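Continued from yesterday's entry.
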Amino acid sequence: MNAPTEEKKSCGGAVVCILLALSILYFLSIGPAWKMVLKNPMVYGTRFEQIYSPVEWLFNHAPPLRKPFKAYMDLWNPSFPPSPKPSGVTTLPPPPAPILHSPPPP
């Protein structure tokens, strides 16, 4: 009778470990993703903002995490982020604007 109960507990622990690992990978993936955005902003810029908006929120609302986050991002792009806003709150910098040549208006 103990076998099914123990099996259920081990499945729950495995699910928690998998969710924790995926969360950590998500936060760590911002570095390589940011490097891709810098190389090709037209392709990745908008998606980056959508996918990593929770990380931007955390960066803006959790001051103790800013220093380690900046240290991690410096591994991928030493100029991250730009100088802080006067209020002391910084945000993830927008990806570089693509250079588009549009036809003149009619």
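--- second protein ---
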Amino acid sequence: MQLLLIMAIMLLAFPAHAQPGFEFSELLNATDVDPATLATPSAVSVDSDGNVYVAAAASHNVFKITPDNTITEIIDATGDGMGNALDSPTDVAVDATGNVYVVGNGSSNAFAITPVGTI
């Protein structure tokens, strides 16, 4: 599963016309996000600014990775903080204006997160 996620990130984040010698590197692993946890990455999306979003089903959260490799947890198991929890996110998408959409498979819900982080 993790190998498939890394391959998906490479396909989405790097141009298909890359020249020989183009190098790939790991964007995120479980030790990069302390004190948060990354467990069972399940979805990836890339926005027009090159930010990569990774949903993790077992840790019930989503991370944003900027082109300068700043890693931020944008939503966790508490969901919107108003009683609507996030459980097992299995999909993440970004629209043209930078809104992030997260689907909670276990919680049977979806969240919209604005570019400033409002859920």
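The chain has one helix and seven strands. Residues 1-18 have pLDDT under 50 and may be disordered. Will compare against the first tomorrow.
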